[in-house]
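Reference record
================
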Amino acid sequence: MDANGIGIAVVDSASAARSALGPGLLEGACEACLGHESGAHGLCVERQVAVPIRHEGVEVDAGYRVAIPVSEVVIVELKSADRLVPLHLAQRLGYLKPNGKRLGHPLNCNVVHMRNGIERVVNGS
């Protein structure tokens, strides 16, 4: 499955988890449920993975942790905020660029309808 297909499966998983659990989950609970739901959809899911930054051929441990990297292709980061702001999107791009990843999804667990909490960040476009 390519990055777009994985991204669609992640969004479907987030929507399914939201339908079952409702709005207002804290980030940790949302992460656990989304991880379970994504795994049930056949995606290779990890949680809270340390991600080094690669710069000029050197790997630097900067203390970054990615909430849910999916199939080593898509990075999902969960928030529980009133709304996603440009800084949240910039942070995702900050994870994508130095690690050669193309697609990221910041997801906000604190919205009434999950479709209002889904963003898509693409590196290189």
About this structure: The two ends are 21 Å apart (CA to CA).
